[in-house]
Write a structure and sequence with these properties.
By secondary structure, the chain is mainly beta. It has strands spanning 25-29, 39-42, 47-51, 60-64, 66-72, 84-88, 93-95, 102-107, 117-123. Strand 3 (47-51) and strand 4 (60-64) form a beta hairpin.
Amino acid sequence: MPEHASFSLEINPSHMKNFIQAGRTLAATLAVAVTSGQLVLLGNTNRPAIASGNFDANTEGVYYLEGVYELTAAAAAVGTVGDAAYWDSTAGNVTATAAENTLIGIFSEPKVANATLARVRLPGA
């Protein structure tokens, strides 16, 4: 599966027999349908990833593992640049609360109270 990035690779795989891809994206088949830009948690590690397009349930799709994305956020959440950002799977949004939520990255710009969107940097490949 080709990389879906507009930047050059820093890795020179020409001398590596076992190089497959840079790992900025992964192909995965999920049991649920997803929409472009939707955050998903992959595997038993709950690896945060962003859908690169709309994919039906049980259909292979490509998911970004790194980058900065604007995601729906809890209005009450507050964070500064570099603070941990968590995913509340029950509410389906970003929060600053660690308890019972999954770490998905860091806030890439301040998240103020009453804002319903947050910019989050995923941890990278």
